[in-house]
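User: New here, any thoughts?
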Amino acid sequence: MKSVFMFSLIASVIVPLMACQPSTPPTAPDLVSKEKADAESLHPTVWPVSAKRRLESVALLSQPVDKGPDRMVASLSDGLQLLDTDGDAYAQLPGRMTSLDLRTLDSQTIALASFDRQRLQPLVVLASPTTQQFSSPLLLPTPAFGVEDLCFYRDTQNNLFLFLVGEEGRGEQWLVGAGISLLVEAKHVRDLSLPPSATFCAVDDQQADLFVNEEGVGVWRYPAAAETDPIRLPIDLLQPFGRLHSAADIAVVPGGLLILDGEQQSLHAYQRQEAQWQPFSSWKLNGLAEPEQLSVQMFGERVALMISDDRDEQFYQAQLTWTHQPKLIDSVITILPQQQTDLVVAEGDAADDPAIWVHPSDTSKSLVIGTDKKYGLLVYDLRGKEVQRLASGDLNNVDLRKGFRLGEQTIDIAVGTKRNDNSLAVFAIEPKTGRLRDLGTLPTPLNDIYGICLYSPVAGEIHVLPNDKDGRVLQYRLHGDNGELKAELLREFSVASQPEGCVADDQNHRLYIGEEKHGVWTLSADPAQSGKPEPVMSVGEQLKADVEGIGLYQGKSKSYLVISSQGDDSYVVLEAEAPFRFRGKFQVGMNALAGIDGVSETDGLEVSSVNFGGEYVDGLLVLQDGRKRLPQGKQNFKYVHWAVLRDALKLQ
């Protein structure tokens, strides 16, 4: 069993905080009238009701009502029940239930999760202690593994997830609710690789930490947020590597963690310090033979405990004091994606860089051209549907410009960096239809070609600026005389280390180059100028390496740079003129109702201020998504309305 404490959630600008916290701490239920505690031991007392019933799990409510129900129980005989201290039932959901977790969604609504052995399915249901009713259950598909435990996670957008911890290290994360409502159908978010002997889990919503035990080893922390690397960290290990003798159930308390040590009949407490968990205190559980399950609830500075004893199969009550000074958490504004593209062709790290082609007469027919660096180019419409693909090799980045004269034709062109032969792959874009055709390649002297941007100083003249991992940047002018494509080298310059992201401001004749480990630089786009790159923004508090994609939004009154801060899965917005004023930072979260996952580990991005009609009247931001979730799979690109970003950051 796990913690049922409902942490305060960070509100995003898109989804308001749904959980209502009372102004004063609620009164704890009568749990410990005979309980005695000192600094080294607890003396739990048996909950008499558990001696009369065969209970699988018990969870205390965070907002008990006076002289009414104050806990939920799960059993194989009576299903889920809402009980008071004396064991009187106020509501019941039939089934053969094991495991139990809950989250308080608002002052009237609790979400409960359990596993029904009769159906062999996990389920989620809403309950109201006030009206004493259960909703119809949301059933998850029958897992392909035995479920050992389950636990909720509620993120900063108030999306509700359920983790399933299974046999042989198998785990899953499911999206089950949004706001204070359950979804009509649960959505698979991702699979997880967990310890092979995991039996218990708990989640700290505020810190987005998933805790899982591993019998015979210890307790581990995993990120609960799906858009992060699944790296585990140890909380504590069994002796001689740590202080545990065994690792049973886990419960979250504010700023810390409680771990049951069944072999030593002890309860260990840990406090969070930065990214580490330090041992804080331990209590001997006097009178318990084989403590196994743990549930907690906070009432002011008191922690009410429910602990099961596997020896006599009863539940015991105790309490302890827990003080914690809350720390402010830096919150990043979260906005939601409105659309996503079809998946790229190749598995793994394949999608990389998008470019936006604007239809000359009907902007609603505009297209997004994206690279699959293991396949070639993919073309999508504004609904994200694939309309064309070109198997043109290992194309890393791509950019485009309009009005190139190739012989007697005037065409639009896209140019990509072809890494398998360090060349420039050039494509004609038919102006009326947006259809692409391959024009061939142009060689370069680069050893490891990487990023690219195009620049048009005057109508019809197009420059191509590829870069190399060694820091070099070349500037070519394209020629199409007599229908033959040629590239004239105009200049070469460099940054100190590996660049990639690059964007040109045609109106103001400026270039912006991203140096992945150090920041963003600018210089004149005029090849006749010999000035060195000047700093725009360095990696630091706001911008986290790697610095990846860079886009330029050219508005009517103000232009902005949008930069991928890949190191913390976010994006920085600057004014696109000196002194490059910082205007804000944002993340792109999960759009639960639309079934679109969040965006993370972004490589390339592109943005346009064109009125594309419909929801994109103020422009469009396209982001490569490095981790595809909901469900997990091949990568793709996400679309964001510029108006959403503008309003969130209060841009002009």
